[in-house]
Specification:
Layout: H1 2-30, E1 33-36, E2 39-42, H2 72-85, H3 100-110, H4 130-143, H5 147-187, H6 191-206, H7 208-213, H8 226-238, H9 243-246, H10 255-265, H11 280-294
């Protein structure tokens, strides 16, 4: 009886061991481990690539801010950068209801000076009119300009004015030469005398500053304008006995006087015709000058 009981017990224990071995093998296979005797072979699977955008919740997928990110690393970098900026100094932009004082505070934070006199420039302040500079600083301060912006504006206008003044000067010189050429042809030998009388009369009437500094629409100065000179020449002729018009008349001759002088210098037998005469060269030069003066 005892042998039969022992044998049945051994038979009843065998299925349990077999079941445990099968479970262990199944578990090993599930975990990707295959046991062969004493050797262990580890099997690995290639990880599947995850679409980053598929992880975004449905209600946020249309957000434009997220369209720039293709992976979690970029998103995390952006988030961390934003967190760092939370404590940075920021300037709130005033809305349409902001007062002038609100804007002043913004300009002050950006670097605008406290007072107009606090503007400092790299160029020497005596290079620009002090009154104009003071007026500019006041306007710049009111507008909230930074020192670099204010200096850039001043340099820009200085350069622009310089080019403009040079252009005006060139135009005035060209008009002066043009007027001189026309009047020489018109007045001939009396050009110098009549021009001097006209300008003397015009200066007494208008003043030299007005004649020299007034620029007309055609670019000529008032004192070099042909029509102005002609008008004062005609007036000077009518007032020829006036002391203002006559002046000292030094060096001026009429056309008749010039012709008479030329005739005297070129008389037959004079030094003008005799090359050996010591005054020959002087006589020739004098006649040449008189003829130039006569022809304007």
């Amino acid at each position: 009886m005892s042998d039969q009981t022992t044998e049945q017990s051994a038979q009843s224990e065998q299925p349990t061991a077999v079941v445990q071995d099968n479970q262990s093998q199944a578990t090993a296979e599930v975990q990707g481990t295959v046991l062969t005797g004493k050797e262990t072979i580890q099997q690995t699977e290639t990880p599947k690539e995850i679409d980053f955008k598929s992880l975004i919740p449905e209600e946020y997928k249309e957000e434009k801010a997220l369209s720039n990110f293709n992976n979690m690393e970029d998103l995390l970098k952006s988030y961390l950068h934003a967190q760092k900026m939370v404590g940075a100094n920021k300037i709130a932009v005033p809305n349409k209801m902001a007062t002038e004082d609100d804007w002043k505070e913004v300009f002050k934070k950006l670097g605008a000076p406290e007072k107009p006199d606090d503007y400092k420039y790299s160029f020497k302040e005596d290079e620009i009119n002090p009154e104009q500079l003071k007026s500019f600083n006041e306007t710049a301060h009111k507008l909230g300009l930074l020192p670099k912006q204010a200096e850039s504006l001043i340099k820009f206008y200085q350069e622009m004015n310089s080019v403009g003044e040079q252009s005006k000067l060139q135009t005035a010189q060209a008009k002066q030469l043009e007027a001189e050429s026309l009047l020489k042809k018109e007045f001939g030998a009396e050009y110098g005398k009549r021009l001097d009388q006209a300008k003397r009369l015009a200066s007494e009437t208008f003043g030299k500053d007005l004649l020299n500094n007034t620029i007309l629409q055609d670019g000529s100065r008032l004192g070099d304008n042909v029509e102005i000179i002609r008008a004062f020449t005609m007036l000077a002729d009518k007032l020829s006995e006036d002391e203002i018009v006559k002046g000292d008349d030094v060096g001026y001759m009429t056309a008749g006087q010039i012709e008479k002088e030329i005739s005297q210098l070129t008389e037959e037998g004079s030094a003008y015709w005799n090359k050996n005469h010591p005054n020959h060269r002087k006589a020739v030069e004098e006649v040449y000058k008189l003829r130039q003066q006569l022809n304007g």
